[in-house]
Structures are given as C-alpha cells and as structure tokens.
Amino acid sequence: MPSSLTYPGVYIEEIPSGVRTITGVSTSITAFVGRALRGPVNTTVRVQSFAEYSRLFGGLWQPSTMSHAVNQFFQHGGSDALIVRVFNGDIAASTATVTLPTDSSNLVLEAASPGVWGSALRATVDHETRDTGDDLLFNLLIEELDRPGGTTVVGSEQFRNVSVDPLSPRFVDTILNEQSALVSVRTSAPTDESPTDGTIAVANPDGTATTNGTLGSNGSDIADAQITGDRDARTGLFALEAADLFNLLCIPPLTPTTDLLDATWAAAASYCQERRAVLIVDAPAAWTANPDTAIGDAETGVNGLRATIGNDDAINAMVYFPRLRMPDPLRENRLADFAPCGAVAGIIARTDGQRGVWKAPAGLAASFSGIQGFTYTMTDRQNGVLNPVGLNCLRSFPVAGHLVWGSRTLAGADLLASEWKYIPVRRLALFIEESLFRGTQWVVFEPNDEPLWAQIRLNIGAFMQNLFRQGAFQGTTPRNAYFVKCDSETTTQNDIDRGIVNILVGFAPLKPAEFVVIKIQQMAGQVEV
To answer: What is the DSSP code (8-state) at residue 235?
Structure first.
C-alpha cells in the first residue's frame, strides 16, 4: 500500500513483477599463462586483439610460446583473452632504471615491468613550466626507442608541470605511478630540488648501461614453479583470482622445447574445477618423437596424465594430439612445431559464436587456418586407438583440410563410462551452473516460502526455456528437455529453519554424433506386380 493515505483521491502503487532476468555468461573467455617480452607480472590483463596484446606484452617473441598461442587464438576466431605474464628471476633487479640527478640527490625512475625492453627508455627534463619561478616544477618526457641506444622513437609520454613537492596535486610520484604505462618512481627526489635539465638514456648505443641507469633483463626460462605459483600471493596460475570469469585455460609449453610436468597439469585442472572452466592440455612433443611408436606413446601418455590429474578433475580437461606444423613468422616463415592450445581455443570460441556452447567444437567446421599439417599424420585405424582413451586427435583430410577430429574430455575414455564424456555436454553444464550462480544472487536473504519458490521457478524456467528454443537440449517439448523444481519437496521445514532453499534443475543434453553408421542392404527377388 502507499505509505500514507491522507487525502481523498486515487493513489497509484507500482507492484514488482518478480521477474529477474537471468543472463547467460560468456562461454569462450580464454586465459593464457606464460612468458612474455614485457608487461605486468602476475597480473591478469584483458586483451581483445593481438594488436592490443602486442602493445601491452611486446608481440611475438621466440622464447615466448604464449605469444604464438595468443596470436593463433585470435587468428582462429577468438575475441576475448586474459593474459597472465610470469617471470623467472629477480623482478626488481631485472627492471631497467634511469636516474635523474638533482643538486644533492636523485629521482630514480624504473621501467613499468621487467625486461630488456626497459633498456631502450630515455628521459628528458626541462623547466619551461607554467610558473618559471617555482623551482620544484619541471616537465618530463619519457621516450621508448626501437632498441637500446637507438634513435627511432616508438612510443612516448609527456608530463608537464609535475612537482617534487609531495603536497602538490601534480606530485611526480603520484602522476607517474597512476598515469604512465612506461615508468614508475622507484626513489623519490628531494622535496626541495627538481631534476636538472637534460636527456638521459638507460643504455649507450653499444647497449652498455650509463652511469645514470641500469639495464633490464628478460630473466631465465620459466619453469613449472612459475606456472603453479602461490595462491596466497596470487602468483602464477592463481593471478587469475583477480578475474571475474574465464571459461578456457591455456598454458603453452614452458619453452619451445620444454613441456609442462603432469603434476602442473593436475594443479591447473584442479583450479579449473574450482572456477568452472575447462583446461586445454597440449600433448607433449615426446609423444611424437619416435614416429614408429607415436600412437603407443600417446596412448600410454594420456593414460598416465589422467592418472595424475584424477578422474574427478579430468572432466574439466581436454587433450589434443599432435602438434601443429606451420610457418614461424620469426624465422623467415620456415616451418616449426607449435602447441595447438591457442588455435583450438580460437576454434572453440568461433564454434560457440556460430552454433552455441552445446555444439561440439570438432568436425568439418572446426578447421585450422594457416597451418601446413601436423607433427604426426594418423590413419583412421590409429585414430580408433586414441579416441576410446579420451585423446582428441587432429587430422588432415583431402579437400576438407586440417580439422579437430575429437570432442572428448580427459574423462571420456570408454572404460570410465563418465556422464561427462563429451566436451559440449560438460561445457553446457558449466555454462548453466555459472549463469544460475550469478543469476540467483538476489535470492539470498529473501523470505524462504512459496512466493520466493514461485519466483525462482519462473526466472530459472525462463532461462532454461530460452536455451531450449535455441536447440540446446534434447526433446521436442520443454517437459522432455528440462525441469526446474523448487517447492516444499525440495525445501523441507528443517531446511527453512536452517536458512536453506534447495533448487533442482535438470536438463537433457545433446550428445554429438560421434559415430555415423549407415546400413546398406541389397534387395533381391523384389518384383513389382
């Protein structure tokens, strides 16, 4: 009722409808963890094109398998990526610095992230400010050159009228730390002296450090320890704690010749289980090192990997074999081997956009582009050895080209008889779980009785009906395709007393037509009368 009825007349009251639309979450946000040429370390950064990745993380770099994977992701249809750069080495010691002298002390700037790239920075100071009488004001120009000691400027930032006075709204420490993408302040200047005029480079033309700076370092090759990281410190894999949502996880090989340990894959699969995401596992290069035993090695290897990960976490992992053979743009386009995770993630994203998460990302539509083949070419019979153990094969076919020819989770071995055997079934379930998890937050602290249960049935039912209309479920009618139950049977009085409301949602998933059987019979003795 209106809050107060004071005068004779007509009162208008708006009554809430109880409709709270549940929106489906994204299904193909892909997280990458690995080494990069530059960029923030152990921080989740979202990029939506390879040009953006190049600007923030330095583009293609030979030691960085992640850079190639991200490039292939966008080439094959991906549109949304989360990047976590990991670093093996002392970050502070590997970060280039430039020292701007004053009369008695210094203002020390450091590159925004560790790496040799910071050795190509130079800083220019002048005092042509808005108040030439204020000795604490100065202008600062930061330039990034094409190489240490180079002359070509590839990027620059200018900060005018900054001050060494901490009380100034233009305090140089605050301005640089908040606004600069190239440098930050490592050591503050004296509060009564601004830097002297002049241009100072981090490195001389021969690449050696000047007396006014230190060179950066790219660190050592990353190891499994940098990938697994530390949950409390949010490093490595656990830097993704800062991400609200990701659906696919790619961890490219540590180096072009070094693969991850099975224990690292197990840690990643367990984390994906927590985050309702799916891990894309690259088959190790060792599986195809000997062509004569490649199929046997792959069969043994995938079984060993599944044993390490465990059947519970294997439902959120999928393995692809073998690797891609494609031109390497950093080596005059000569053929090289690449892990398939980035390209496969792009194909999955493309399939989701064109058909939906319930469509298996495999078949004639799941084609690779820009590759010359695979590190091992298998026959149908060999494919028939690996498919029943849950290993997704990448195949080459005449006319059709190079395709993803498998759609099973790591728990998809026939012997396990898992209900999560197929990738689209598992991913559809994760999509529904995440969408309902986010779309029912409003239920918390609502009065737990029939009016609430009716609203829950209405809202979740509308969401499921929309999926049914898009063709996500089996069945010709909603009754055959899904159900939503929330009433006194699912939530007893004891549950109500404990503040619990139970919602039961079921769906009939579509299973991919993995085997097509055509029966042909010869008709004999059939005479038309």
So the answer is: -
Spatial distance between the Cα atoms of 170 and 165, rounded to a whole number of angstroms: 8
Across the beta sheet with 334-338, what order do the strands follow? 334-338, 324-328, 373-374
Q: What distance in Å separates the CA atoms of residue 157 and residue 148, rounded to the nearest whole number?
A: 18
Q: Helix (H, G, I), strand (E, B), or coil: what is residue 464?
A: helix
Distance (Å, whole) CA 249 – CA 442: 29
Domains of the chain in sequence order: 30-88+221-424 (3.40.50.11780), 97-214 (2.60.40.4290), 448-529 (no CATH)
pTM of the model: 0.94
Taking Cα atoms as reference points, which of 230, 373, 353, 221 lies closest to residue 288?
373
Report the C-alpha gap between 10 and 322 in whole angstroms.
Answer: 75
Residue 172 CB coordination number (10 Å): 26
Say yes or no to pLDDT of 2 above 70: no
Grouping H, G, I as helix, E, B as strand and the rest as coil, residue 51 is helix
Exposure letters 226-247 (e unless 16+ CB within 10 A, then b): bbbbeeeebbbbbbbeebebbb
Structure tokens at 168: 């100034």
Cis before 16? omega within 30: no
Cα separation, 27 vs 353, in Å, equals: 9
Q: Which tokens is 29 given?
A: 């946000």
Assign 520 to helix, strand or coil.
coil
CB atoms within 10 A of CB 371: 21
pLDDT in tens, 59-81: 999 999 999 999 999 999 999 99
Q: Token pair of 167, please?
A: 């009380």
Contact 258, 221 (CB under 8 A): yes
Q: Tens of pLDDT along 219-242?
A: 999 999 999 999 999 999 999 999
Torsion over CA: 429, 430, 432, 436 (sign):
positive
CA end-to-end span of the chain: 83
